[in-house]
Every structure is written in structure tokens, then in C-alpha cells.
Amino acid sequence: MSENVAHPAAFGDAAAIASSVAAGERTASAVVDEHLARIDEHEDAVHAFNTLMADEARAAAAAVDERIAAGETPGRLAGVPVALKDNMCTRGVATTCSSKILEGWKPPYTATVIDRLVAEGAIPVGKTNLDEFAMGSSTENSAFGATKNPYDLDKVPGGSSGGSAAAVAAGFAPVSLGSDTGGSIRQPASLCGVVGVKPTYGAVSRYGLIAFASSLDQIGPFTTSVADAALMYEVIAGDDPMDSTAAPQPALPVSSKLGAGVDGLRVGIITEMAGDVIEGISADVLARLRAAADALAAAGATVDEVSVPSTVYGLPAYYMVAPAEASSNLARFDGVRYGLRADGTNTAAMNTASRTAGFGAEVKRRIMLGTYALSAGYRDAFYGKAQQIRTRITEDFDRAYESFDVLLSPASPSTAFALGDKTADPLTMYLNDVCTIPSNLSGHPAMSVPFGVGDDGLPIGVQVLAPMMGEVVMFQVAAALEQAMASDAASVGGA
Amino acid sequence: MADTDPQPLSRDEVAHVAKLALLDLTDEEIDLFTVQLGSVIETAHDMNNLDLEGVEATHHPLGLTNVTRDDVVRPSVDRDEVLSQAPEVEEDRFKVPPALGEDS
Q1: Does A182 touch chain B (CB under 8 A)?
Q2: pTM of the model
Q3: Class assignment of domain B11-48?
């Protein structure tokens, strides 16, 4: 019998913690201590963290408590522990990207999203494990060992933000941040039974996020409820002078319609991801997709299927665009200014030796693939074509949104798979992101909402997709799905 | 894919790309990457099934260009803090082995 240590929101969700701390019913210090004790008990089994920030967290909690004692407003996330994916810079605290090439490096500045969370009273408790440089779908590509799925310690948590998803599922923190380049928030959210949001490209600042593929990367939250996800989104989103690719507009008011229901909304199930076109999506995942559609229909939405034909080309296009940008972004890791340096008799030899010793196999594969895709004679055939497909996918989505308010699909083709199951063949691993990649290529927002379990009893998420900057209706529909699950559970006496 | 299909990627190409990417691969790694990257490139050929004649390329989802700010002096990251994280430093500069010399 596999071991289950999951306990999402073990000490309340973020909204509950923040309101009780602000009201003086419990201290931020007590909240942090509870979470650190739970981490102490189960972290050896789960391995969600690369670096724990216990001392920093206690000091930050004491500071929040002092502010409250002094009568100051403590912020919307007062005393809320938050786990941070270890590819986001934290000044003075090791930031590794789960790579040997950055082991021990302490950034001289902090990511905008983290500054915004801390300004609202949130307490960073640690840096979470990921696939090296966010390249992977299982968190097994970490140089520091795999993270385990809290619902079944023999299974992967998904990836690349597996540590952040597992931390929330295990109750180590009620909320966390991840980054999503091809599904790295939504797929682990699905596998770990938590809410995971990829905002519209540019809605959230990337300043301080160590770049993987700059035109695809987006930071977003993991939470145990849609309301918490909306709260996190409203805190971290909005223009940032430090990120010239950020959308020049304030955070969208995504909490505003959480209780509005879905009466009259038009919901489209993406035909290509509903079973017959894209192969390899398991029957139990498709059953939960249908159940979600039925629940929305029962709540008054109009549900139909809609074809978004070019999404089937998402995977090959992604595996040209993302590695191409990665090969460029990761050129900065050369042993000169930070991170690992290996010996070489001259600068070029030192650069090569450092990169060879510092990068793991999957990172090397992607750098090679990107270098190839951008090299003379191949650029138009591969990279150029992939960028045209991005345009086509965006057009197809936009056409679908002329007739539908949101779209639905699976978030992951399967429930959590066994550790070691897919590590031998990279292409098999890449297929995990077949439903999530198109949104990164187009820039549209999408999120995974827990919607029951599969035949193996493990969590399944449904993906809600929306038009550019369509987060308000996306969260509205996600809240309706969450509500439907809750009444479902109540009607069968709880699950 | 039949075994008789021409390899989408040759061993020599892999070795060349490794050199461009400043990676020193073992013979075994070159063999493995030739197969693994070859299968990804084979999948990429699926893109040829789409008629993309005249379709514009997307470089960036928002299409922002030339974002500027006022040219004013403001605090930057601390120099000593940056240098404290470097592998080797001399007189407030990053230090590297000779740019020219053995093996170059």
C-alpha cells in the first residue's frame, strides 16, 4: 500500500490564515511554527524543498506580528506561509534552478513577485524543487533528487514546478509560486490535486525569474482553493517597470465574479483534446472532463464542442521554440560571473568545462536542440515554421472565442505516474504537456482545477482556458467547478 | 518509423552542435543524443503538414516593441554583493583564465 501524506490547507487556506492573523486570533509566528513542524515531519519523504528558510520565516513572522501589535495594516496575506519555486531570485538566499551550475549562488536582488507577496505580509518558508531550469514534467530532472507526490510517495508530483505543487498538497504551505513555460504549473497542479494558474503572458512580471524560454515563461500560483488563487493573482499581477515584457496594465480583478455562477456562459470543449484526435489521453481523465462539462451545463452554461485544429501542432512547435530560446538564455552560464567554474587552461576551455560539469542531461539535450534549430540552414525550416504555428494557434483560439467564453480540456493526459516510468525516453515525457503547451505558444491564460480522481484514486484536474486577459471569466468558471465538486462531495457524504 | 529511414540527425551534426553550444560530450552521450534528438526532430517534421504560406511569425504574445523609460539615474544592484558570488575576482573585476593560450 502506497503512503499518502497529503493534507492540503492543513492549517487553513490563505484567506482564513490572513483574516485570523489580521484579527489577532492567532499570530503569524504561531502559523509559521505549525507549518515548519509539519515540514519537519514529512519533508524527508516528500522532498519538496531545495532550501528551507526556517530562520528567515520566523523573523519575518515576528515582524508581521510587531506590525499588527503596533496597529498597522498587515496586508492581504498577513502571516501566510508561501513556498517559492527555486528559479525565482531571493536576495541572499540560495537560488539553484535545481542545477549544479548554480549550486550555492545567492542572488543580489529579489524577484518582483516575491517583493509583492512580502509587502502583503506573506512569509516565504523555502525554495522548492524543480526539473533543472524548469525543463521536465516530473521533477525527476533535479540535480538534488526527485520530489514525491504527497498522495502517493511512489509517484511523481508532475513538473517542472513539482516541489511547489507538492508543498501545497502536503500542507507545508497553503500557497506557493511556480512558473509555467509549457504546462509546468497546470500539469503538476492536476497531479497533486491543487489549483494551478498560468496567467496571460505578461500579466505577471518575470523580473527575477531565471529565464528558460522568455516568450513563453509565466509565473503563477498554486493554491487549495480558487479564491486563494484569485487573491494570489491580484497580489502578484500588474505592470512592472523592471520587466519590459510585462503588459502595461494593473492586475485584473479576478475575485470579482467568483460567486457569479455560469448561467448563460458559453463553454467549449476542445475537440482535439476530447479523445479522438490527440492520442494518449486516458479514459478516466476524459471521464472527468465530461463530468466537468456536465456540471457546468447543470449550472446553466451552454456546453458544446469546438475544434481548435492547430493545437495538434503545439508539441512539435514548442520543442523548437522553447529549446531555441533556452539555448540563448542559458549561454550566460559560462563560469565567469556566478555559479560553478571548472578548470580550463584558457577562457573557452573553462567555459566548456563549467557547462559540461554543471548542466544535467535534459538541459544539455534542450540546449543542443535549440542550437540546432537556430543554426545556419535549419532556422527557417524549424524555428521559423514553429513561430508561424504560434500565429496559427493564436488565430484558432481567437476564432473559438468568438463563439465561446471559455474552453475546457484535460490539464494532464493521465494521473500521476510512477517515479522512473518515463525517464528513459524524452519524447514520452514531452507528451505530458500536450494539452497545456498551446496556451503558452499563444499567450492565453489557463488554469487547472481539481475535479475528482482517476481509477487509481489519484487527483485529476480540468483545464479552463480563456481569451487574452480573460482571467476574470476563467476564475468565474473555475469557481463554479469547485462549487460543483463541493456539492458533489456533500451529496455523497464527503469523499 | 521504419529502421530503414534515413537518420534525421547524424552523429557528426550532434558533435558539431555540441561544440557550438560549448558542451563537451562523451562518445556515449553523442550516440544517445543522436537517437534522442533525432526522434524530436522527426516529430518536428510534422509541422510540414500545415500550409503556412504567408502566415506571420509570432515572436512575442503581446507584440510589444521598444518599451522605454525615462533616462534617470537610480539605484542598481550592489557591486560588492555581485562580486561576492563570482568564482574568481581581482580588483573589483571578474577574473578568468587567459583568453588566449594552451588549446586555443
Answers
A1: no
A2: 0.97
A3: mainly alpha
